[in-house]
Design goal:
Structural class: alpha+beta
CATH class: Mainly Beta
Bound molecules: flavin mononucleotide
Oligomer: single chain
Order of helices and strands: HEEEEEHEHEEEEEE
Mean pLDDT: 94
Distance between the termini: 50 Å
CATH architecture: Roll
Largest sheet: 7 strands, antiparallel
Helix content: 10-25%
Shape: globular
Number of helices: 3
Length: 175
């Protein structure tokens, strides 16, 4: 087989990772707060790695870094909530993504529990109360599959918070 030209050969790991990150920055997504509670301790993180998996049974997945403080709380409790943020709750993002602000995480917002005991945010666009049904460790992250036990959806239409190209954004109609 012909050798690949240097320009077409597989880039080194750093170049490949940088290209991956700049490609993924183009993916516009909603922003969620993933929350959990175990032994009286509440924990949470901002996440965009959230996806629907199946409807029967209703299942979603989250992808959580092993170093995030919420990781072991989710693992121990076997439960988590996915709270889809509205543009009005953008102030919660810094609290739930900056380690220096960990202590402030549940000091504002209307938090409640439903089936699993994971904290659900009253002002969320939608909040999914999930029980962990499978875990898959992959390199730095764990993918948790959660069966959705209950869903709360906001009664009125609310502006979602979006994230793209390292910035928080609002939705605009395309036409
Ligand atoms: C927009 C945005 C999206 C993020 N998405 C994820 C994610 O999907 N999974 C993840 O593990 N961390 C994600 N993070 C990072 C975590 O929010 C952050 O590392 C974590 O809250 C720090 O946790 P700790 O201080 O509790 O350890 C994201 C951060 C931001 C700002």
């Amino acid at each position: 087989m012909d050798k690949l030209e240097p320009a077409l050969s597989r880039p080194d790991p750093k170049t490949r990772a940088d290209a991956f990150k700049s490609g993924m920055r183009r993916l516009a997504s909603g922003v969620a707060l993933i929350t959990s509670a175990a032994g009286g301790q509440r924990a949470g993180l901002v996440a965009t790695a959230v996806s629907s998996v199946s409807t029967s049974p209703p299942t979603l997945l989250i992808c959580v870094n092993r170093n995030a403080s919420a990781h072991d709380v989710i693992d121990r409790s076997g439960a988590f909530a996915v709270n889809l943020l509205s543009a009005g709750d953008v102030t919660l993002v810094d609290m739930f993504s900056k380690t220096a602000r960990r202590a402030e995480r549940f000091t504002s917002g209307d938090w409640r529990t439903l089936v699993t005991g994971a904290p659900l945010l009253g002002s969320a666009l939608a909040a999914f109360d999930c029980q962990v049904v499978q875990r898959l460790g992959y390199e730095t992250h764990t993918i948790f599959l959660g069966e959705v036990m209950q869903v709360r959806t906001a009664a009125q239409e609310i502006d979602p918070l979006l994230y793209m190209d390292s910035a928080y954004r609002r939705l605009e109609r395309a036409a």
